[in-house]
Amino acid sequence: MDNVVGQKSGLMWAVHIATALLVLLWVIPTVGLLVSSFRTGDQITSSGWWRALSAQEQQLSPIRIEGDEVERDGAFVIEGNLFGGATAVSAWGTNVNRPTEFAPGDTADLGDGRTLTVQEDGSFVLSAPVTWEGGRLPRVFTTATTAPEFTTENYRNVLLSPLAGQTVFQAFLNTATVAIPATIIPILIAAFAAYALAWMEFPGRALLVAAVVGLLVVPLQLALIPLLQFHNWIGIGKGYLGIWLAHTGFGLPLAIYLLRNYMVGLPRDIIENAKVDGATDFQIFVRIILPLSFPALASFAIFQFLWTWNDLLVALVFLGTGNDQQVLTGNLVNLMGSRGGDWEILSASAFVSIIVPLLVFFAMQRYLVRGLLAGSVK
Amino acid sequence: MNPAIQALLTIAIGVGGCIGYFYLANVVLDRVLFPASGPNAGRNINRANMVRPWLFLLPAIMALGLYLTYPVFQTAWLSLTQDAAGGERVFVGLANYAQMGSEAKFWESMRNNMLWLIVVPAAATAFGLLAAQLTDRIRWGNIAKSLIFMPMAISFVGASVIWKLIYESRPADVAQIGLLNAVWLRFEGGVWSTVFLRLLPALLLAGFAAAVLWMGWIIARPLARGAARGIAAVARAGGGVIAALIGATALLWAFGALTATLPYGTPRQWLTIPFWNNFFLMAVLVWIQTGFAMVILSAALRGVPEDTVEAAIIDGANPFQIFFQVKIPQIMGTIVVVWTTITITVLKVFDIVLAMTNGQFETQVLANYMYDKLFRANDWGVGSAAAMIIMLLVTPILVWNVWTVRREMR
């Protein structure tokens, strides 16, 4: 804006840098979790995610030696390699208390004339005067440099194995079952109401609009117990029907407000022409208003979808806390409690729950912004 | 039955039922009750048109009445009653509120909520304003906006997981996997530590204090000129005093940041440091809400008339003067809207605290306190009383909104 009188600010580089810093600050947290979700548990705990791309030295989990025993020169020998791929051993040991006792190429004395040698590339020679048959082979503790490696195992793990009583995939389905009807039903109800409030003449209209605006800010916290009582009283208890109704009620003020504001702005001529041509209100609504209001409908749909998909409180209260009834957010909270340190599980679960809203967000950002502006700038 | 099919089926029934109501209700009205044919066609059409608004509104009014209005009164009633033998609830007056007032956890929640109410809207609005001002001037601004806006789409719980990884702390002798501790351990008390951990926070706090004091001065200025009377004068005096207090506290903290001894070299458990851990939780919400503030403020900034800016430039104003004295006053209304919207979100904050600390380590907030009472302690009386406190805090905004809309519709 400084260049309106033909003078470009010389500080543009500072603006670029400041913006880049701000963006970086805002993106890094998410990137950290995303990167972590593609690393193994060992990798996550042995180095920060920002080192994921560099080769790293870490203490690997103990490996029990296995292989075929061969009798050679009077000794029983097992030869093989500890690793499959490119890994360089920097230290190793056979005792859990001294995992870095030996350098690569050293020979460890295991007692009773048994020896073990481990080379830098992981190949080993285990030799003993008597056969190992029937006994347990020793474990090797290694500190090794491994090439950067990413895995999708975490996602397979959280999607298919029940970790917090149910699989994340099941939670995903539950969330979708909650979110999709809870998005569509309020839109339908609100669209009709908004049309009535915008284009139909009847006593008490202004009062109703004011009431809707007032209800916009009523905290849903107040509704929890009374609605639970009510649901129990009419016999639907906890379940999907109850949570749809609850989300519908909580989402309606914003829906009506947004849609009414938009519909009021539609050209009066179109509606009056249609009336002159003999169209009923229902026909006008379905054939003219609904198609014309698509941007506002899309805005609210995105809001409501993000809100219902991401909601925790309403789901906890109205859906019950049974194991097969968790939504993604509830599942995630449970995992944070029970598997708090297992970042490979937490990060993958979190991303499964984040991915759908993110896709919706990036695909329909235009409508979201429009809705925000319509909803708050007056 | 496969859960996916079951889900689809329930979706179809729920949505179908809704469409069915509107369609059938209109058919019944037009064909059966008041058919637009026969001898009374004209009168019937008029009657149908009188009924139809209510037909369109009925589901909405029922849902709003039952799911938002009734609960407010029911909760108010519940907050005045207690469980008695036999499942009956007996009226106890304000006993629940008294009990709540005697609990340390409640006052802790109140204190934390006040902190949240001051810090989060201020920080999110300030960052949003900064981001809007920066991104509007560069070519890749839209991409930058998208990325800053992105956390809006992430659930509070998801965001909590994301930030918990940042705050993760591990013993000093193993690699840190939390970004904050990794950065923290880089500081060892040298020059850069002084710059980043003392000067920078002190400057930021001093800047914040200056902004608050300036706002307080603007609020209270009419008093000095004797221009405000009655309730307005009291409100302005109150606002000025509150702003002065907040500003003074921020100045004290700025001084504290300069003089505090910092435990360099040891990894910290950020979420268990009393008092300060609140700010680490707030960071999550600021991170989420900044995008919202940025989008709205950016639209408002672009709506500032060019000629006012041009006039300022011709008069020799520098960029800072243009921003603070020309643009900001013109978008003040939008800033207030953003501020109040975030304030409402803050009052209801629950997921972040539940997921990250569950109110331990002195991080309790009202919404989580209420949830604790309602569903863990099963004490509906005190829980409802806590809910009423939240309602009470929201009420000024509610009244203001309704008042504005009534004025606009006239």
Describe the structure.
The complex is a heterodimer of chains A (378) and B (410). In chain A, the strands form 2 sheets. A 5-stranded antiparallel β-sheet of chain A has the order 3-4-8-7-6, with no helix packed on it. In chain A, strands 1, 2, 5 and 9 form a 4-stranded antiparallel β-sheet that branches. Chain A folds into 3 domains: 10-53; 56-146, no CATH class; 157-372, MetI-like fold. Chain A starts with 11 loop residues before the first helix and ends with a helix. Residues 1-7 of chain A have low confidence and may be disordered. Chain A has helices at residues 12-37, 41-46, 153-160, 168-199, 205-215, 224-234, 240-264, 268-276, 281-292, 294-310, 313-318, 328-338, 343-363, 365-376; strands spanning 56-59, 63-64, 69-72, 75-81, 87-93, 107-111, 114-118, 123-128, 139-146. Chain A has 14 helices and 9 strands. In chain A, 55% of the residues lie in helices and 13% in strands. In chain A, α3 packs across α13 and α5 crosses α7 (240-264). By secondary structure, chain B is mainly α. Chain B is built from 16 helices and 2 strands. In chain B, strands 1-2 form a two-stranded antiparallel ribbon. The longest helix of chain B is centred in the N-terminal third of the chain and has 38 residues, at 41-78. The model of chain B has no long low-confidence stretch (mean pLDDT 83). Chains A and B meet through α1, α2, α4, α5 and α6 of A and α1, α2, α4, α5 and α6 of B.
Topology:
The complex is a heterodimer of chains A (378) and B (410).
Chain A (H helix, E strand, L loop, with lengths): L11 H26 L3 H6 L9 E4 L3 E2 L4 E4 L2 E7 L5 E7 L13 E5 L2 E5 L4 E6 L10 E8 L6 H8 L7 H32 L5 H11 L8 H11 L5 H25 L3 H9 L4 H12 L1 H17 L2 H6 L9 H11 L4 H21 L1 H12 L2
Antiparallel strand pairs in A: 1-9, 2-9, 3-4, 4-8, 5-9, 6-7, 7-8
Helix pairs in contact in A: 1-13, 3-13, 4-7, 4-10, 5-7, 7-10, 8-9, 10-13, 10-14, 12-13
Chain B lengths: L2 H31 L7 H38 L2 E3 L5 E3 L3 H7 L2 H32 L5 H9 L6 H12 L11 H8 L4 H34 L5 H30 L16 H27 L3 H9 L4 H12 L1 H16 L3 H6 L9 H11 L3 H30 L1
Antiparallel strand pairs in B: 1-2
Helix pairs in contact in B: 1-2, 2-16, 3-16, 4-5, 4-10, 4-13, 5-10, 6-10, 8-9, 10-13, 11-12, 15-16
